[in-house]
Write a structure and sequence with these properties.
- The structure holds 2 protein chains of 2 kinds.
- Chain A is α/β, with parallel strands linked by helices.
- Helix content of chain A is 52%, strand content 10%.
- Chain A is built from 14 helices and 7 strands.
- In chain A, strands 2-1-3-6-7 form a 5-stranded parallel beta sheet. Chain A has a two-stranded antiparallel ribbon with strand order 4-5.
- Chain B has helices spanning 2-15, 33-50.
- The chains are: A alpha/beta, B mainly alpha.
- The interface between A and B is medium-sized, with 41 and 22 residues.
Chain lengths: 330, 62
């Protein structure tokens, strides 16, 4: 009997190890890895590097930015390093990746609302989807800034070693897609965009303007205007000789009218601007640059037309700052 | 058809531990430790695939 149990356990272990290998292989083309390859494959000089979450991923059109520079007689390489569903730790890791292998002339950091401030402490269970990159790209940054408790720290180290756990959300994504397909049987099809269900993004906005104003006031009272992770991101970029531009990404006209007219937001924005400028970066308010609802794919993300429009305006703004030297031949 | 469902039921009752008696006929492979190893691995992988998701799981761009 004992021998049979050992054989069964060995058989289980072999099958789980095979599944672990298969999941690891399947994840080799995940979105974060594609982005890392894109950053690595850029030339030795990246003139404009966009960093941020899905707002930047959807909102920055490198081709439109390059064309605008080209018209002004400047040949530039622009790279969109934005990655959906990430926080500043992943963005720091991606920035460091770019700075290690390239000269980055202009780093453009895109954000909205209170995203420059410190988020809540991390939990290992939250590292799913694109955030799973924290397991393999500079995990020491996650341990330094994640504010894990002991249990989560142990979980993080364990998950790092096992593809089946580390890339669990690749499996979940397939299950979720199947679940959604079944949910829609006999029902009207739900509208989706490049990041998921369009309606889901309404959940990411504050419930009402009072709550938004309260959050602004809380952050101002605590003095938490620029998170330590972003401070490091800006310091490292500056130390590498990059110019840093922090840009409020264009927001849906409804979002702008609902939240950005509040006195608490105006005060918070002016304090944020000062904090950013103290950190050596330039602050640009681009929240109202795309006023047409048709240029958005949901309440938060720009559609292609909006991204092209924003990117042209951003390039013009960078050109206006006049920091570009003589045109370089390529 | 009825016999098929009865055998099907017997297999799952044995595999899920409802009974210690294996299905009456033609299922000797279920006594093999290899079968148990494969069955446990399938259960582990099903747990990984279906457990742990939260309602915040809304991004599907991967």
């Amino acid at each position: 009997m004992k021998r049979e149990v050992i054989i069964a356990i060995c058989c289980t272990a072999v099958m789980v190890a095979a599944a672990n290998f298969a999941v690891g292989r399947a994840a080799s083309n995940s979105v974060p890895r594609q982005l890392m390859r894109k950053i690595n494959a850029a030339g030795p000089v990246i003139d404009v590097l966009g960093i941020g979450n899905s707002l930047m991923a959807a909102g920055f059109d490198p081709t439109a930015a390059q064309d605008t520079f080209q018209k002004a007689g400047r040949s530039v390489i622009a790279v969109n390093g934005g990655l959906g569903a990430t926080t500043e730790i992943e963005q720091l890791a991606l920035t460091r990746l770019a700075l290690r292998k390239h000269t980055v002339l202009d780093l453009v950091y895109g954000f909205c609302d209170l995203q420059l401030t410190t988020g809540v402490p991390l939990k290992n269970s939250e590292l799913i989807g694109n955030r799973a990159m924290l397991y393999y790209l500079e995990p020491q940054l996650t341990l330094r800034y994640g504010r894990f408790d002991l249990l989560n720290r142990l979980e993080f180290q364990t998950y790092r070693c096992c593809a089946l756990l580390r890339e669990r959300s690749n499996i979940w994504a397939k299950v979720e897609k199947m679940r959604r397909a079944m949910e829609e049987v006999g029902m009207p099809r739900q509208e989706t965009n490049q990041f998921g269900r369009r309606a889901d993004f309404n959940l990411l906005e504050s419930a009402d303007s009072n709550e938004f104003a309260r959050h602004c006031r809380e952050k101002m009272t605590s003095g938490d205007l620029l998170s330590p992770v972003l401070q490091e991101l800006f310091q490292e970029a500056e130390a590498s000789g990059s110019r840093i531009t922090v840009v409020e990404m264009p927001m849906h006209p409804l979002h702008v009218s609902r939240f950005y007219g509040l006195a608490a937001w105006k005060e918070f924005r002016s304090q944020s601007r000062l904090a950013v400028e103290r950190a050596g970066a330039v602050y640009i308010d681009g929240s109202g640059w795309v006023p047409d609802e048709g240029d958005f794919q949901d309440h938060l993300h720009l559609a292609r037309s909006g991204a092209a429009r924003f990117s042209r305006l951003l390039a013009e703004e960078l050109l206006r700052r006049g920091a570009y030297g003589a045109p370089r031949a390529r | 058809m009825l016999q098929f469902f009865e055998e099907f039921k017997a297999i799952f009752e044995y595999a899920s531990g409802v009974t210690d008696d294996p299905p009456p006929r033609g299922q000797s492979w279920m006594r093999s430790p290899l079968w148990w190893g494969i069955w446990w691995a399938i259960l582990i992988l099903l747990i990984v695939a279906f457990s742990g998701q939260s309602s915040k799981f809304i991004y599907i761009d991967f």
